[in-house]
Predict the 3D structure of the following.
Amino acid sequence: MPASHSAAHLLQALPLSSGQSLPCRILPGPMHGVTEGSFLRAMSSRGWVQCWWTPFLRISTAVPRPSRLRNWLKPYLDTGLPVIAQIMGCSSAKLAAAAQALHAIGCLCVDLNCSCPSATVIGNGSGGARLQEPPWIRDTLLAMRASCPGKAISVKIRAGFSSPEELPGILAAVRAGAPDFVTLHYRCVSEMYKPVPEGWRRLKLARELLPELPLLGSGDLFTTADALRMRQQCGVDALAPARGLLANPALLLHIRQGCLGKEAPPLSKLEKLRFLRDLAEPQPASASAPNGFLLRFCAALLGPDSRCFQELLKRPRLQECHLYLQEQSEL
């Protein structure tokens, strides 16, 4: 376990085998359908994030062409922040080739997803389904390492597929694969996002079984207090809040301030309205897009009973929503 459990440790850079570093240890967990598009712009322009971590790119029948990979990574790279590119699949060789291609385009690290609990993903044998074959995780990490010499790789796992009793075997395979860091979401795949009272015990066990590998903690990080307690009680080297960013998109910044002993004020209603306005900002390809993504954020930020949410329900397209939010944020 690390010698120091001080919160300030989370503000330090996390060294990688490439000789580069993650800029800090408070990272935005990747979320499919959230960590993309206008969310990247709204978060980056406010300085609320220091690094991006993409949702998974599925590598199935073949490795995508370099042009497709560049287009996929472009919104993240355009923020000017370091990028962790996450991939998922069943073929070790194809995943290794994809990792090599992504590093050539300019990502800082390539992350192997062995954690997604989606029924569709599990049905395809990827994501969290890979936890049922720990040797595959080891072999895939080694293949990625061989294809990307001198570059950073990582892996995201859960505490098991059906039971946390599987965790020691999974961690042994991860350790043998020698990634730059490991992210553990403390639920099992079968637990999805249900409450798990003993979840932090699993993180503590992982800390004990992976003494030499940087360990990122994930799961139910909704407040600064949650983050600081996880660091203190579990000895994790870094944190990756995800769903907590829906209710408080400034959460990463607030955690950083908490590490310095400062209490950050909650976002004001005007700050929330302006954030929603920027999420709805029209782009050539999205001006007439539906507003489901925006409604999800509005419900989390202001509540489904708020006047703003009720007004957005009447405006099914992003462009209409943006005009309304522009007016409200200028009142």
Remarks:
- The chain has a mean pLDDT of 95.
- DSSP finds 14 helices and ten strands in the chain.
